[in-house]
Amino acid sequence: MKITEQEIIDECRAICGDAHVETGNDIDPKYQRDWLDKYPSSPFIVVRPDSTEKVAALMKLCTATKTAVIPLGGNSGLTGATQAHPDQKAVIMSLERMNMIRDVNGDGRYMIAESGCIVENLHKAADQAGWMFPLVFGAKGTAHIGGALGTNAGGLNVVRYGNARALCLGLEVVTAAGDIMNLLPALKKDNTGYDLVNLMIGSEGTLGIITAATLTLVPKPAAYATAMVVVPDIKAALKLMNLVQNQTGGRLEAYELMDQVIYDLCVTNLDHVTAPFDYSPAFSILMEIAAGSPDDVKTHSDGRLNLATQLETILAMAFEQGLADDAIIANSEAQRQNLWAMREGALGAIQKHGNWVMSDVSFQVADLPNAIEDLKAAFAAVAPGPFCVAFGHMGDGNLHAFARPYDEDPKDHPTEAAAIKAALRDTVVKWHGSISAEHGIGQDKQAEMKQLKDPVAYAMMKSIKAALDPDNILNPGKVLL
């Protein structure tokens, strides 16, 4: 179909209404940048549909006119996955108006939410119904569930509940052709061919547009026991994690690793955080266990929960085994929130210091001690300056290593920045890890993925993309090269 740009705009307005279509100089600046201000975006049109049917109608229009479509959620991604290049004449399709929670079913332990729902709002809705939706990460107040599924987001509770993929029972998806695929039923078992739900999760809007999802709800723990523990080294941290898992029957909710650099950045740059210790530990762990029985939430005469006593007993064992050097246990919800504010505010603390070479890599959990040692040696050999090689979700092997050569902007030292990236890549290859643990590929990691992915697997991904989006109009220029 050959129609003019103005006719495309008029059709979009007919579908979504004039108030929900922006063009040219009227496009809000928030649609022209990414969260890190790294990838500028130049959309031809911004459209904001409020129903699956309107998404389908827009896709039919874009398919007929071969107009590129970039789905947009909360725009909190870190890999440039939702930005439009000037030469694409792309439509940014913001799903922000599709923010209804269609159902919360306690008997079935699921909720159905449209893709524009903010993740934190899902937490509140689940809590009000007496359940918990356990996908938790720093951008929960901004990120949409559609984007979280599109990137297969991880976060702080993966060690117990899994990442976004593990928490999704079904999807509603609009295909490149504008058809609506309804796979929303909350089936725990469905052995009828290819797993199309999991195919869409993590595809970053390149295979279809997620419009709604059926999400798993879990029992809400009646209480938590939280501690920050100083460990002598990474090997001890790994042994401590397994000790806690064994002693609690798998009730470890989170196990977050922080080295001295990230600890100091948080204490210095987060005004709302009180330092847990009066010194800077070389390695510390933020851990949290959940109540598993009514006995766990019974209190002693001094007001302490049995659950806190359990954690004290476990930490006493850790001290005896040389797995811990120091610890502070949160004795109130305020103290617990202070510890979590430190971890959840870490990215802001990093950015407040300046620009860094950042990463989102993962290793097999058992390989973390050796992989971290390799990263430490490699970073130190590149240039003086602060670097962090041990920060992230240790419970699932996900590290957010970062470095700042000469404590200056990496843009001013491209050779050293490239060397840091090469060291990360080489260490990932050596230990059979992944260059993207939870942030996705976007534009940022396309070349690395093509270089490092198993070639047969990469070719199969290209074949899937060609089959489902033959005109390459769904988020072109992302994920695959």
From TrEMBL:
Residues 39-220 form the FAD-binding PCMH-type domain. GO terms for biological process: respiratory electron transport chain. GO terms for molecular function: D-lactate dehydrogenase (cytochrome) activity; FAD binding. Keywords: FAD, Flavoprotein, Oxidoreductase. Its cofactor is FAD. The keyword 4Fe-4S does not apply. The keyword Oxidoreductase applies. Its EC number is 1.1.2.4. It is an enzyme of class 1 (oxidoreductase). Pfam families: FAD-oxidase_C, FAD_binding_4. Belongs to the FAD-binding oxidoreductase/transferase type 4 family. PANTHER family: BLL6224 PROTEIN, D-2-HYDROXYGLUTARATE DEHYDROGENASE, MITOCHONDRIAL. This is FAD linked oxidase-like protein.
